[in-house]
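FAQ: What does the model actually see?

It sees only this:
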Amino acid sequence: MRGFDRLIALFPREFRDAFGVEMREVFAAQLAAARQHGRAAVCRLWMRTTTRMIGAAWRERRGARQTARPPRASHLGELRSDLRLTARLLIRRPGFTAAVVAAIAIGVGAVATIFSAVNAIVLRPLPGTRDGSALVGIDRRSPDMREGASASYLLYAQIRDRSQSLAGAAAWSRVALAITPDGHDGASVAGAIVSSNYFDVLGLAPARGRFFELLDDAQPLADPEIVISFDLWRRQLDADPAAIGRRLHVNGARYRVVGVAPPGFRGVFTPLKIDAWVPLSTQPHVRPQRDLTHAPWLWVFGRLRADHDRARAELTDLFSSWSRTSPESAAIRTYTSARLTPLTGLPDDARSAILSFGAVLMGAAILVLLIAGANASSLLAARAISRRRELSVRAALGASRGRLIRQLLTETLVLFGLGACGGLAVAWAGTAALERVPLPGDAALSLELSPDVRVVVFAIAVALAVGLIFGIGPALRGTSRHLTAAMRDGTAGATGRSRVTHLLIVGQLAASIVLLAMAALFARALDRGAATDLGFNPAGVVSLRVNTESFGYDDARGAAFLTVFRQRATAIPGVTASAYASLVPLAETPANTSVTLPDSSPTSATELRVLTAAVGDGYFETLQIPLVAGRSFTAAEIASAADVAVVSERLSRRAWPGGAAVGSMLRIGSRSIVVVGVARDTKHVSLDEAPAAFVYRPLAIQTPSAMTLLVRTQDRAASAAMALAAAVRAIDPALPRPVVTEFADDISHALLPQRVAALVTGILGAGGLTLAAIGLYGALAFAVSSRTRELGVRRALGAREFDVVALVAWQGLRLAFAGIAIGLVIAIIATRTLGAYLLGVSPLDAIALSGAAGIFIIVALAATLIPARRAAMADPLGALRGSTE
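And it is asked to produce this:
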């Protein structure tokens, strides 16, 4: 037992007093029993007893500590307490709450609107598709990846049947459809002709009915089928559940509706609103002038089974092998490389252009958000200063600084969260306004930009992040170590707060100057673009796209329709000229081809890349394009598609420097062409393009099925448009009502980026300037209120009202001039990245920068004079009396 006494002596006195006697008695009884079983039993007893004593001592010590420690609230309980206090404080100050939430809503709304537009056009997966990340567009490219080519049906079949790295491949192409339900007027819609596995590769499920059966696409169907969009099902068929199996007149033939696509699905090119899909087996009917087998007119996409690099390498080998045995032309066989791009609804080139343009607009929106955050930070700092007595009392009652900071940050994050909700409302309204921006050219182009879940999460995350960035400063200053001094005299920390506020105000003003400079530059670019000499006169011209294939006409009937239609159009009162053309300048991209200029020796022939288009009789007169040499096409040359051409001045100067273009020869492919005229250079692709080498060929109406009729009228364009629509229905009442547009609207897409950028940056600039002016006004108003005694003393000592106004106004104008100087420097640097969108307007344009600075000075002066005038009008005695009470 002496050993037990030595062991228990090692433990604290409190433990020995509580358990020592009892444990000694128990140990003595167990020791007597253990000795009867030998030394091993005694050793086991010692180990068990020692372990029990150590465990009992540890539990006793832990219980004592827990008894001495005061109870502590849970984190969830503290959060609920902070939220309740925040709600009471915000409700008690509705004006402050509304001001902060409105500022944040403007900033978050600007960012969310731009992100929602980019997300909808570029980032959003195709609606309804399964595992969209595995879908890729397959492009056949030249070895340098600069140019691409579509695929023929035979090449598509090779990809579909031989690729081991693709789980499936499908093909599609756009087609014009005229759909006439029984008992309804017909409608021209954008359609797609697709392989029978199109919907299966996408992983879509039909909203009604079924999709196409997997049949041989090269074999015509005895009973043609059609799948319609969900929107067309509701719009034209009144969402009739019995529409499956119903017959529709499509391009003059009867098609059976077999299915309805899921809601929101618009095809694999999302800006194009596809309303119907027909299988490739209907090609002899809907695209009779296309060769399904050999002509490259299909776009291919697939679903990856293996990794991206392996699939690209396999398809490159396939394209190289195909080029050696293909019956295609030599130019097409040079496209031997494969490029795989995510199937997100846009071609890769268009996606890159939209992302770069969206980055410009997003930069402007972020500036507005920073201005809004700085504005909110100034208001929160002023609020924290006004609450110093409250915070001092809470600190004196035992609240730690961390607890106070957490409370202030909770209030800030709640305000920014409410601002995010307001910003989402702004984003819904902003995207709805952007959707109403008229898109040029094709009536089937439309955008759906409304925010989705991704935009909601993005807006909330951005708002909370900005809230933390701009809220931590006011929280730290409001809970500084000077709280006790602040409770005594109410002035501590004012100087530091003033310096920080001035920095925030200067930052807001500089950011608003950058926004105004961007808006002014885009406005100047828009004005420059509108005044650009196009080389032709679009005023008074209307256009109508005619596609006789969609009417169900064969070549002979289509040619007869085009002839009669132009005769009726020319007979409309006020019409002075009309002509057919294969494309509309600045609205459609001309074909790019090579021409050879023969010289005296065949080995010295020169090959040039030129743009080309086919035009009809009267084209140059209709668009008022002057001919600087030679003549236009004759009616006989147009009718026979003779081997003659009219070239542009640029090509004439380059190919025949001596001016002997008329009568010279050039070769396109295997055909020798005689130049009969030289036309003035015109814009064809973009407004800032250099004059291009261009070749006009005669358009024979017996061959093309789709062309545009251009009509020049002396009367109102709207009247001519109505007369043209009536002329179409008079020739064939079964035809859908045509879409007639003013030519100026058709070519307006050339200025669409500048128009959208000027609109968006103008709105953002106005919002940022308003927020900056409010921030400047608030800072001066706070400064005036804190200098009430000083201003009262000045007035009592004889200072005039003008002196007080000048004193306060100069304080504000110093901030304004500092913001202008910093903002102009940043604007000059930042706007250098906008050169691609400015149409030749310099980023250093004096008119734009001085105009932005002038507007800014006017607004800043107004924001400065209001508090200055109020300070000058104050009663000196009242100010002194109020400061001493």
